[in-house]
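## Example record

The block below lists the input lines for one assembly entry, exactly as stored, with component labels intact.
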Amino acid sequence: MEMKSDRETNQYAADLSSIKEARERIKSFIHNTPVFFSDSLDLMAGRRLLFKCECFQKGGAFKFRGASNAVLSLDEKQASKGVVTHSSGNHAAALALAAKMRGIPAYIVVPNNAPKCKVQNVIRYGGQVIWCEPMFDSRRITADKVQQDTGAVLIHPYNDGRIISGQGTISLELLEQFPEIDTIIVPISGGGLISGISLAAKSINPSIRVLAAEPVGANDAALSKENGRLITLPQTDTIADGLRAFLGDQTWPVVRDFVDAIITVEEKEIIHAMKLCYEILKVAVEPSAAVGLAAVLSDSFQQNSLWNECKHVAIILSGGNVDLDVLWEALYKKT
Amino acid sequence: MEMKSDRETNQYAADLSSIKEARERIKSFIHNTPVFFSDSLDLMAGRRLLFKCECFQKGGAFKFRGASNAVLSLDEKQASKGVVTHSSGNHAAALALAAKMRGIPAYIVVPNNAPKCKVQNVIRYGGQVIWCEPMFDSRRITADKVQQDTGAVLIHPYNDGRIISGQGTISLELLEQFPEIDTIIVPISGGGLISGISLAAKSINPSIRVLAAEPVGANDAALSKENGRLITLPQTDTIADGLRAFLGDQTWPVVRDFVDAIITVEEKEIIHAMKLCYEILKVAVEPSAAVGLAAVLSDSFQQNSLWNECKHVAIILSGGNVDLDVLWEALYKKT
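Predicted structure tokens for the full assembly:
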């Protein structure tokens, strides 16, 4: 018996209809974020760039889309026990905010070396912080224990259809705002964002290119695409703290089948792009959010004739949560 | 014979009708800038704050409103000779951009110690840079000479009714966007911005409070108000490079008669407010643009019962033109 591919059987964690349902569910709670332009940046990139400003989303990042979709998807009985996740980043704060909105508890397992500002966001949104050791195993074990003790529902940061569907609502907004978009460049980490975006965008317009942007120092997605199988890394090294996670078994098939290419960028390209966002767009992005602009300005993109036809390029500015003192210190070390 | 006051004779450099005319003149060339909010900042300020994001204006600052109004006010014969100004800041770039838009020359007299990034903006917009010595006299003398040589029209950065009328269009937009605004806080330097804003806002709604925010290290407006006469300083000392100019004879009468109070803020308050704009609003402002938020958060504002009734406070984020490397270095020196 021949195996059918995932694409033929449509075996993915989300699809256009789950993404449209997500939008109905969350639309009165999220911001329809603006799209910014700059003639100066267009000139540098040699094409029209459209910056989708998810840094202006509630909680300061796209993560609130998926988190609110997941929390609002729960039935009353499930919801009453609350939600739990292990994350030190934007998903943690977004889940706390979504839970607060529904009036249910959020238990956030946080490694004890997490950035102070991100933990403060969780606390500000009423999340209950449960500390654990920084090792990944400790995070998982602690989250399992919280789940057993409280009956809370685990909401994974990206390896979850509800999360992927929520993030996919970006494509619905974007293609309504600017139907002429022919390319979308998306930061890739665990793959929740690009999975939702590519599933929605390619269902609406199959000729759209979806490109992932990734730091060289956390290039698991590039290696996975190259090798045709899910590869993780022993460690990562990048200033882009939101891009240090690895693809999961729910996101890898989507990335494998729907993402046209992965563009890797150097640290200095990320920092340069971040400065351009501040200095030219006047938008305060976190380093992870700058990889899309870094990619479109990179030699590997500019000199590849494959991308000559990318004339209206949307770039997802994924978030703006940054502790400036920490960032500045990191920049001084890097430059 | 008794002298009538300026207020009675309406002897000001602009009024509601000149501001409405300015708006008609410039509206298809400028951005109607968005207004941002933050529940977190509202909590800190104890009231609703509405941030008018002029950093997203063309040229990165409100200055393009006045500059485009001035350039578009010229008749064909005047315009054909071009425009000239002496400025190293946002007005220079804005005037260059406005002149480029009309297809006329812009001669920009720039002190040879001006920040590189601001000069680059002028050049990027096609302005012709004429270098001079950093002393104020040299700037004026050089500009006079350019005027004689070229026949170009001098467009002063703030002491000019066309400029004041252009900046005043901010009030028209703002009070249409949010009629419930009861207070507007405006950075003050030469006074062009606050003159336009206060003349328009108080004509539309006489009960609106207009407050100026000023660094302690450049407190000529506060001293002038206190003494009831125009006072300038021998020198200034502030990181807010856009707020080092002094009131002029066109702007002082408006500030004297229409600005309810001047709130002075310390350097550390400016830097703290600037960080809040980046970290919470995700908006990259220049230091000068942060003084309004610094003022509303200051003890002198918070503890003054005069301002208890300020419940819907608009804050003008005046611009976002900053050379990050220079800013960061300055911050390291200040903190």
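The interface with chain B takes residues 34, 36, 40, 53, 55-56, 60, 117, 124, 275, 277-279, 281-285, 320-324, 328, 331 of chain A (CB under 8 Å). The longest helix of chain A spans residues 161-177.
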